Amino acid sequence: MKLGLGTVQFGLDYGVSNRNGKTPPHEVRRMLEMAAANGIRILDTAAIYGESEAILGALLPQRHPFEVITKLPSLLAGPKRRFEPAEADRLLERSLARLRCDAVHGLLLHRPDDLLSAWGDEVMDWLMRIKGEGRAGKIGVSVYAEDDLDSLMSRYPLDLIQAPVNVFDQRLVQSGALQRCRNRGAEIHVRSVFLQGLLLMEPSELPAYFHRYADRLAKFGQFARQQGLAPAAAALAYVRNLPEADAIIVGANDHVQLLQLIDAFGQSPDGLDFAPFAETDPALLNPSRWVLEPSVAT
Questions:
Q1: pLDDT tens for residues 222-261?
Q2: Which end of the chain is more exposed for a tag (fewer CB within 10 A), N or C?
Q3: Domains (ranges, CATH) in the chain?
């Protein structure tokens, strides 16, 4: 299945629409069982997702059907922002220890600045060494749409790119950046499909920060209803039918939500025109720029 399961909710109170907080371990277990039974094979986590790696390490059996992808925090450590291979090794070993495994399917840098810095070649050499040692099957980076993907791909042989794509944020699709990455051999995983759940919220639920965007959100909700779709199914229809997307990472707070997303994915039709919903305002599209109480960031 093209769907992958994001696990940030396993370790953090995450998402602008999340009212229930962190997913408890017993619910995580049910979600993992449901994901496996429905053909989901990718689990996406990160060192900065609170206890997420440790929860997965505790609950996943030694033999499981999933391809685990994790992300490391910045490798440019200390006040001088230098790259230290020994520190990078330590960060990776901590993640592998929490996950209780010797290797991961994919290892991503959580920020592309590590590769775009003066230390980029050294960072890439380290990633290639980790791949050569068999501790990561694929290496790559998680990006924002504002990042210079073309520079990254022209300089480095990255296997995997994770990027935000949704009905509002079509920038990397419209610019052709994702297709150029695929043409260079990179696998593309799209995230932020529901914009942290913002696309699924009722107008009355919107935090004050988003009131200025209420008309655009209402327009999308009306479009979904006209198609006879739930907002989740409409949002998934856009990314499901993108030829650039090899996998679609979605998050859920519990097994009921996960089942709803699996069902919505199966209902997502072809041929819908999402071009009218494309936005360009980073204050809407990039959650790290949202100003909320309490603050929410990716």
A1: 999 999 999 999 999 999 989 999 999 999 999 999 999 9
A2: N
A3: 3-289 (3.20.20.100)
